[in-house]
Amino acid sequence: MTVSTKDPKQFPVLRNLQFSPIKDKEEQYVVLWDPTGLSQDKLVLPLHYFFLIQHLNGEHSLEQIGALYLKRFGEFLMPDRLAKLVADLDAKLFLEGERVESARREAQAAYRLAPVRPALYAGKSYEGEKEKLIAQLDNFFTSKEGPDFKPSANRGKKIKGLVAPDHEIRQAGPIYAWAYKELREAEAPDLFVLLGTSHAGLAQPYAVTDKDFETPLGTVQADRVVLDRFKAKGGMPFFDEDLSHRHEHSIEFQLPFLQQTVGTKRPFTIVPILCSFSPTCLSDPQLAQTGKQVETFIRVLKEALAESGKEVCLIASGELAHIGMRYGDPDPPTDFSFHKCMQTDLEMLKPVEELKPDAFAQFIQKEQDSRRIFGFAAIYTLLKLIQAEKGQVLRYDRGITDQYNSTVTYASMAFF
Questions:
Q1: pLDDT at residue 168, rounded to an integer
Q2: Mean pLDDT of 126-154
Q3: Nearest to 257 by CA among 155, 337, 181, 367
Q4: CB-side neighbour CA atoms (13 Å) of 179
Q5: Fewer CB atoms near the end CB (10 Å): N or C, the chain?
Q6: Spatial separation of the C-alpha atoms in residues 16 and 40, rounded to whole Å
Q7: pLDDT of 282-293, one tens digit each?
Q8: Are residues 84 and 173 both part of a single domain?
Q9: Of the candidates 76, 105, 134, which is a domain's last residue?
Q10: Which residues pair with 191 in a beta bridge?
């Protein structure tokens, strides 16, 4: 978020929104939405209006933005049109300001009062009825892209961790199944630390919640013993942004798989954590404060887990590369560029298999995160916490996310 001391009415600040290009016949537009779920609205804008909102950063006045529009398009923009756009953005809670802060306070209060974190995406991203969901999960295992139920080479071993996608379950379900097949056949613990990816971003590198999570298969209990130990050891500040769990799908998407592979045999508990930081914070002196927060979090959580005396399995939920126009590239991916991206992804995952978190971070820094590895923070945290001998890439795939062939890549991994 841009911090500005200027009059927000004349120097408005756009919130951290997500966008995607869309096409209707020959016309091109951009659709905006709020990844935090604070606003449920979407806004479809023509490309020249998208140019306008990119300058709503608190540094440009409305008059200056009008001048930039004239210079870019050779067309005078009537002030009332720009004022109407800004008013519309404000009404939809897309601008920073008191309206958004008030809505955030109300949402936080409602989240704390709720008995559980509800299954927000049930019936949308995966089946919302119990029997249908069980059948859907089974189909992911037996589908052409799935792992089937043949015995794993790691059957009976103590499993220490997984990396799984957090892409749309209906599309990536068979890739999730490759990770959870290993869990199904392993000697699994009854405590799972879920390291999700915060797609909306966080002010701090981590956000922890103590809420139980609800799914169509029942309620998953948060581990109060571990969470209380974590708080007592200095982890309390990392609960400040627990509202971010309300709308984030990254942890929710793991739970039906966990319930079906482990929960059918015995009860289990979770420690739900969202992660959001770049590899740059680990080496850039200007981001040293964030780097210290990462170190503190990992140390405190490691101590809390050790003192609990429980066996633990760490699950990092996140995607890998994001390429294409939806993610800021000037052109759609080609078969060649995707193949090159796949080769780079698999090379990047070698230090993950070898349990080398710093080498993993350095690989992404070396390419200046040009492919936007969203799952970095969750995977890095897993590597810093895990006590395993090796990791293994089980399956790799991609998903297409818009009409312009924008592509997300993801993988399943297991650690023993």
A1: 97
A2: 95
A3: 181
A4: 30
A5: N
A6: 14
A7: 999 999 999 999
A8: no
A9: 105
A10: 269
Cβ count within 10 A of residue 179: 27
DSSP codes of every residue in 80-121: HHHHHHHHHHHHTT-B-SHHHHHHHHHHHHHHHHSSSB--TT
Residue 53 sits at the vertex; the CA angle it makes with 51 and 58, to the nearest 5 degrees, is 125
With bands split at pLDDT 50, 70 and 90, how would you rate the model's confidence at 7?
A: confident
Are residues 396 and 285 part of one domain?
Answer: yes
Flag whether 9 is in a domain. no
Residue 341 counted as domain residue: yes
Q: What is the pLDDT of residue 234?
A: 97
Q: Reduced to 3 states, what is the DSSP secondary structure of residue 24?
A: strand
Of 413, 414, 409, whose CA–CA distance to 171 is shortest?
409
Predicted confidence band of residue 223 (pLDDT cuts 50, 70, 90): very high
DSSP state letters, 268-288: -EEEEEEE---GGGGT-GGGH
pLDDT of 14-39, one tens digit each? 999 999 999 888 889 999 999 999 99
Q: Round to whole Å and give the CA distance between 224 and 222.
A: 6
Average pLDDT over residues 304-312: 96
Q: Can you tell me the distance from the alpha carbon of 96 to that of 4, in angstroms, rounded to the nearest whole number?
A: 10
Strands of 158-268, DSSP E: 161-164, 191-197, 206-208, 213-215, 218-222
Domain span holding position 65:
18-105
In a domain, 110, yes or no: no
**Residue 188 and residue 335 in one domain:** yes
φ/ψ of residue 164, rounded to 5: -135, 155
pLDDT tens profile 383-409? 999 999 999 999 999 999 999 999 999
Q: Tell me if residue 358 falls in helix, strand or coil.
A: helix
Helix (H, G, I), strand (E, B) or coil at 396: strand
The total domain count for the chain is: 2
Torsion sign over Cα 225, 229, 232, 237: negative
Q: Decide which of 357 and 5 is more confident.
A: 357
Length of the chain: 416
Contact of 136 with 257, CB cutoff 8 Å: no
